[in-house]
Amino acid sequence: MLQMAASGGGFMIRNARCAWMRRCSSASALGTVLAALFLVGTSPAVSAAPPALRIHLLGTGGPELTPDRAGYATLVEGGDTLLLFDAGRGILQRLYEQRINPKRITRIFLTHLHSDHIAGLPDLWITPWFLLGRTAPLEIWGPPGTRAMVSGMLAMYGHDVASRVNRFNPAGAIAVTVHELAPGTIFDRDGMRVTAFAVEHDDGNPAFGYRIDRAGHAAVLSGDTTYSANVVAAAQDVDLVVSNVIAFSPRLSALPEMQGVLAKLTTPEQAARLFVETRPKLAIFSHIVKKELGGAPGDAAILSRVRAAGYSGPLAMGHDREVIELGKSVTLLPPPSIVDLPDLDSKSAPF
Questions:
Q1: What span, in angstroms and rounded, lies between the C-alpha atoms of 237 and 244?
Q2: Which H helix or E strand runs over 33?
Q3: pLDDT, tens digit, 9 for 90 and up, residues 115-156
Q4: Which Gene Ontology molecular-function terms are recorded (predicted)?
Q5: Using CB atoms within 10 A as the burial measure, which of 47, 229, 291, 349 is most buried?
Q6: Number of domains present in the structure of the chain
């Protein structure tokens, strides 16, 4: 195991798998982060205390289809509490691969109602109920319009639900409670506080970002937005900023059709400004929208643009199923192994 820490910035990489090391290195992500770390010194110390928050980057993609990025979804774990932020395509599979039983997910926060952020919601709603034995209804927080969206989902699957309800699949566990958002504290339970703030996403408005606080540590999820003063304000004194990012090839960037798309998300230069103004212990990208900038070279191009725009702090390109632990240090972990991952195929399956 490779262990590296920045005592001043509080950021650490723990790497138990050489394949993850090679991938980060080939994308220049690991080298970029380590360069920042060695500016403030290294220490082998690893805190034995459990983290205050554990952030799972379940899906780090946008609507584009790529070999290694599922739709956007972020799970925040604090003690026994699990909060899911957005539910893009592939969410059920990614939870399973993370060795988290999907039936445990009952609290879902939506940033906005674009399809790539809710495509996995029906699967997460219905499959853990009839297949895995979820006994609790879902609770969903989202922007105005969420109640109508959920009503449409229930209507779309009306035949399926009506046919499956029986003494083994109770109707109460398929119910959904919806809370439509306004900015402010929207959740304060079990020692976890979630604060919603409005962001700017053009045709995705109304859209929100979220700040999650627990035990003196905090993370901000920007959601889908261009540069926003609200994100900067929410991200003061946080351990982690998870920001969206958008970058296209020069050819696509010049097309009239793409101007509006580029204007509604965060460019690498805008991300640099955000990170300079907030100085998190770690800044990491998720909801990564790239066009004609595929794979590791595209990742490296984005990181280079952030550096060229003036941000020199800890920075990483997120990948599906990576985990960030927030405690005395901010620790970036590789995806958990799926070697010997058992099938999850029934209510009684051990998992």
A1: 19
A2: helix 29-39
A3: 999 999 999 999 999 999 999 999 999 999 999 999 999 999
A4: 3'-tRNA processing endoribonuclease activity
A5: 291
A6: 1
